[in-house]
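INFO worker-7 received task bundle
INFO bundle size: 2
INFO processing item 0
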Amino acid sequence: MRSGFTLMESIATIVILAILGSIASFLVVDAVDGYVSASGSAQLHAEASLAMDRIMRELRKIELDPDHVPPPDVAPHIDAVTANSINWWEEGVGAHSLSWSATAGDPLMLAIDGAAAIILIDDITGFTVSTFDAANLALPAVPSAAERETIRRIAVVLTIQRSGITESVQTKVFIRSTMSGGGV
């Protein structure tokens, strides 16, 4: 008797190994896709968080309007607010502008004292600015000059999208100069 495998046994072994190999490859592909998605999401979140940190730093520094009357009241030196932008003045530095064109994919821009605007973050799909008074009541999307004087908090929502991955971050900033003892 000869020892060895028949042709049928060899073919059956090859088929079983092919099935096991294809199942294993699907598991590996799924794991790699999950890693790529998670790393892409983490990258977007890191970029959005960095941009939001800069936005928070800039908005917190909004100073009081020196021309505001009556003197006991305080008013931030905010020149304009829309749903997608805010403009303010900083003594010794000049005009500041944080804006988005409301076109998906365009960058969020920060301009300081007429210098060329810098890009805080690209691929924006949403950027909204909301303002609130001392009682934390929402002000209109485009507040009047009198309503801008009552702004005490600014909420910002930032949404970015790349390669099918969307990330949103939001914050509500208290303007330090308008807080009790904050520069009155």
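INFO item 0 finished
INFO processing item 1
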Amino acid sequence: MHIKFSPSLFAAIAVSGFLVGCQSAGQPANMPPFGSMAQITSISPDTTRVLRAGEQVRLKVDVSYVLTSASGTIKLLVLAADSSELGQDVKVITKGNGKSTLETQFTVPATTEIRVFAPLIVQGESSGSAADGRSYKVIPR
């Protein structure tokens, strides 16, 4: 049996093989491993409370998490509207489900908003992570 060589068929097979090889087998770069997540379950003071510039705030955040990798961290990050950092806390976590309480204190700056984030950071991952967040409105003194 004689098979005729078809350049267009050969090119189509070569390109499709190349494209399959280029596809990532893992997660998108900005997501933690499949199934890993963190969620803020409680925040004090409540976000319905308006903060006043100059006020001292003691922030307490409860976070529930699922970690499918061996270890990671939950980070509490508090930012002003201009993204300047006001406070943070970090807890090391291990594989499985759990809850963690993070706390920090800060003085409310002259800003319009305070943003609070709780990212789950997976050990060994160089990319960003998914983060749950909340915000507070800020009024002048």
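INFO item 1 finished
INFO post-check item 1: Residues 59 and 104 are 5 Å apart (CA to CA).
INFO post-check item 1: The domain at 30-139 is CATH 2.60.40.2550 (Immunoglobulin-like).
INFO worker-7 idle
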